[in-house]
Structure formats: structure tokens, C-alpha cells
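User: C-alpha cells for Cysteine--tRNA ligase, please.
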Amino acid sequence: MKLFNSLTREVGEFVPLKKGKVGMYTCGPTVYDYVHVGNFRTYMTADLLVRLLRYNGYEVKYVMNITDVGHLTGDNLGDADLGRDRIEESARKMGKTAHEIAGFYTRQFLDDLDSLGLQRPDVLCKATDHIAEQIELVKKLEEKGFAYRISDGIYFDTRKFPRYGELSTLRETAGAARVEVNPEKRNPKDFALWKFSPKNEKRQMEWDSPWGVGFPGWHIECSAMSMKYLGESFDIHAGGEDLQSTHHPNEIAQSEAVTAKPFVRYWVHGAFLLVDGGRMSKSLGNNYTVTDLDGKGFGPMALRYLYLTANYRTPLNFTWSSLAAAQSAYDKLAEFVRSRRAGEQESRRELSKEKLKKIDQFRTRFLEAVNNDLNFPQGLAVVWEMVKSNIPDMDKADLILDWDQILGLGLANAQEGVKVPDVVTKLVGERESLRKAGKFVEGDKARMQIEALGFIVKDTPTGPIINVKRS
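Assistant: Done. Predicted C-alpha cells:
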């Protein structure tokens, strides 16, 4: 298996630290709003990588974080240490508590994760559950001389770490921030490890620390949690390309400054998703969510299929017409599998050596493609070439279902025209009434009953949407 390593900037053979075992960490969402389809492209890349590793026989421990504190609004302007906490800002606007906001959007994220066929991480860890670990890591950095104090917090001194920024192009992008640099910082690239609560404001999320009441900086959580669950050195760290310039170099610096060991062996970064050839943003009204796809009549597997059509390291252009094409392709593949599996009871004829050889060739070519730096577009090309070949249809279906362990399209369970049972519709109505009455605990119990019946419910501004729950 070969991977492009953002650290070495080369495609090379993947060799784990421990034979047969892989530790992998992915930067998860900041849960202050719905996660959009651009974010999910990043999580899709991680999911495909985990599926492929497991298919290849590796035992994978997959960890993802949930950022529910410390990610400030200044990050949008080029300085993640300035501005207001995104969770608390969302809570203020919506008249909720920060914990309610984080809980709501975490549940929405997991619902979307399930509907897109993304495997849940083995460990899903929240920043607010690991404050002690983050404080301990900052204390060690301070003891080793890598941290210093200024009026608004404890900062990492990047000049003390000579290799700072080797993962990114920071030397080229230095000074690109659109906000004024904090004059107290020793170096513009220095970053917050622990922020003090403002003296004139009581935050909803703040904790006692050796330096006073405050909250962790955005970057420290990933180092603290990844090393807790995967060790001081592990195999793969994945994330979007936007994290390569600052967040991930900060992780490397603060982790290796404490351990004096290589932090991560392979860095995997996914490219952005474009919309109609341009950028995605709230201001443009095109930061679409999975729920938006439902409203347009598209299934979540159409989006998953669309993600597969472009190399993860190249931009993918999202348009409604491209999604329609992906939906059509997915439906054809699902229908092919359904119709051929319906005839499984039919006896199979003994295959000729020629056709057995073709089957083996298709299997080899598909695996060579996806094992070559996750070349799923080429893998899909092999799938369709195989479907059009002259090997028996039942063997085609078997190959597709075998490969779907990696593709994750849920073809074994693909259904058409699924009817929502009356009991589910009734439960959804009851849950909606409970939520409007502020009885969120009871509403959550109704949601769990709905899931136990094989469905998921998504809350949207226009009301709940019911979908089939996919394994």
C-alpha cells in the first residue's frame, strides 16, 4: 500500500510502527454549526483509508476528536488565538447554553456520519472531557522551557523548536493573517496553549488551572488526546488541507517538544471541495449540508459516490448536476447488485479458466488502484469495466460486494422505495412535541427508539426528516 506523505511530500510504501497494527487520528469537527459537505469530504478520505487498511488485514485503532471548546472566530481571519469561542458565540446567538449547542451539533454530525456510511471511530473524544490531559501537557511544555506567559494566556515559543513549520509552507505564508498580530507575542507564529478568561466576562466553559481560570487553546487538544489513545508516536494523522499550514505544525511542535520523539509518521491531507467552481462559504449560501441534499431529493450515497470520483488530493467540484450523475451511477450499481442477488438460488455453472483468470485480473487491478495512494477514481473505472465484461453476473455481484467493504456504498443493503412504518412516523411526531416542550431527555429516548427500528431522524429548519439507518 502506498500513500502520499505531506511531511516528506512523496508517495511511498506504508510501513506501520508495529507490524499488522495501525494507529490513526483524524481532526474532527468544531461543533458550533452543521457540518457541511466540504468537511465531510475530509472525513470520507479518512473513512476510505481506515476501510482499506482493515481490508488489507491491519488492526486499526481509529481516533477522532470533537472540538467543543477553544476554537476561536479569529481562525477565519488567520489567527486562531483571537476572537470569541465559536461554541459560546453560537450559544449566544441561539439563546442556548454552550453545552446544549455542542451536544446538538455533535449528534447531528454523528447522524450524518451514519447516513453517509462513514464508520464511527473506535474512540470519539471530546476536548471538554480531556481538560486535565491538556493542562498536564502545557505544564510539561512550561517545565521544558517551551512556553511563556503574556496577558491573555500561555503561549508556545516557536523559536525554541527549530523544525517548526516543516509540514507546511509557513515561511511563504507568514504575515498573511488579516488581523493585527498580538504585540506581546515573541514571534507572530507563536500560538496559545492556554487562554485566560476575560476579566470582565464569565465564560460558560472555563476551568481552574495552575495559571488561573481559563480554557485550552485550540491546538493542544489534538496532541493531548491523540497521544493518550495512540501513544507518543503513531502511524497516521489525517485532516483537511486547511490544517496543514498551522494547526498540524502546531501539533507537531508541542508534541515533539515534550516527548523528543517523532510524533506522526504519515500525514494525509484532503483537498477542498469547490461549489460550482468556486469556494464554499456561509456568506455565499452554498455551504450545503447532508440535510440539504435530502431536500433536493438526493440520497446520501450519491454524495459518497461523488467523493469517490476524484482523487482526494485534488479539488472536487460539487454541482447539482454532478451529484445527479453520481446518484444515477449509484442507483445503477445498486440495482445491478439487487437484481443479481435476487437470483442467488440459481445454480452456478463451472467457470472456464479464461473467465476465472478475468475475475482474478479485475480483483488485482481494483486493489492495485485503491492501494496506490487511494486512487478510487481508477478503482471505480475498474468496477464499471468489470460490470460490462462477459464474466457471469453473479460473479460480478460477488466482486462488487467484496470491494464495497472498501467503497462503503452499502450495496448489500441498498433498498428502493423504503416505506416508513407508522410506528416510526408516530415516534417522530411525539419526539417533535417533546422537544418543543423543552423535554429533551424524553425526546432523546424517542430518537433511540426510532434508531432501534432502523431509522434516523434529522432536525431541519423546516421540520424533521426520516432516513433509513445504514450500518
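User: Anything notable?

Assistant: Residues 320-341 form the longest helix (22 residues).
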